[in-house]
Design goal:
The structure is a single chain. The chain is mainly alpha-helical. The protein has a domain of 44 residues. It has three helices and no strands. It is elongated, with a radius of gyration of 21 Å. It starts with a helix and ends in a 14-residue tail after the last helix.
Length: 117
Amino acid sequence: MDELLHAALKPIKHRWPDRLTIEELYPPIPCFEYPINHNMVKIIENLLDKKAQTVNYLHRSALYSNAMSNIILRPGSIEQAHQPDEFIELKYIKPTIELLTSFAPIKKRSIFKFNSA
């Protein structure tokens, strides 16, 4: 990315030398990657009957990846995520609640009840 930025700004830097500086605001965050063949990925794929997929955006789980294993599991469609009009279709809510409650039995509260009507 740094190379692309410098290449794009090269004509400006050439025309006005010493007037443009590029400084790193934050140190780079390493890429977050979970082994696709990890047992937890396979368990979730089986529960969802869907294949895990790679997405191209920063998630705060990358900040913790050296300390713990992370899997990002969220309801909705990646095509709608992180967009100005982001939303989650209702059809994703019930399956997500069922999946999360299947991981660890919890006392069901009214917030976990789903009324499809």
